[in-house]
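4.2 Preliminary Data

To establish feasibility before requesting continued support, the project team ran the inverse folding procedure on a target of 159 residues. The structure was first converted into the token representation described in Section 3, and no sequence information of any kind was made available to the design step. The complete token record follows.
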């Protein structure tokens, strides 16, 4: 970020600015009563798609701290991290092949502790869903695989 950005987040895609490096983000698949918490994104590049709550990692913050902070900020839910699931990369290109966005998301698995999920500026809608039966929901590209792995990790946790 340059000084002219005044510390504000640059939204993607932004064709007027060349992408310098990938953006690091974190998310968490939170389980409660056999269901996982999903939210619709309200900003590009995944606007209106169902996904896991999450967002950008701030300087000095661990990946787990970022995942839990974003969960609280986006949907008002608290959880405990059980373990790491996998990373997901989202790369977009314009018609000429230039990179418009590149996110690397560290995805965790968590157990719900408190709070009823609420929509907000970054989560247009929220719901608890069967992690293995998403039906025809419009989701982010790798959500099905992320949820299958998360459900396996959650089921294997010795609580």
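Position-by-position output of the design step:
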């Amino acid at each position: 970020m340059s000084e002219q950005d005044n510390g504000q987040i640059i939204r993607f895609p932004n064709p007027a600015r060349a992408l310098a490096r990938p953006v690091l983000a974190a998310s968490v698949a939170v389980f409660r009563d056999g269901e996982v918490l999903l939210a619709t994104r309200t900003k590009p590049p995944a606007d209106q798609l169902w996904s896991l709550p999450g967002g950008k990692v701030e300087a000095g913050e661990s990946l787990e701290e970022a995942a839990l902070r974003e969960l609280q900020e986006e949907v008002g839910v608290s959880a405990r991290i059980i373990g790491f699931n996998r990373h997901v990369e989202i790369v977009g290109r314009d018609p000429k092949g230039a990179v418009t966005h590149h996110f690397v998301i560290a995805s965790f698995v968590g157990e719900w502790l408190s709070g009823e999920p609420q929509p907000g500026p970054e989560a247009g809608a929220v719901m608890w869903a069967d992690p293995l039966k998403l039906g025809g929901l419009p989701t982010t590209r790798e959500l099905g695989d992320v949820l299958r792995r998360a459900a396996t990790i959650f089921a294997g946790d010795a609580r």
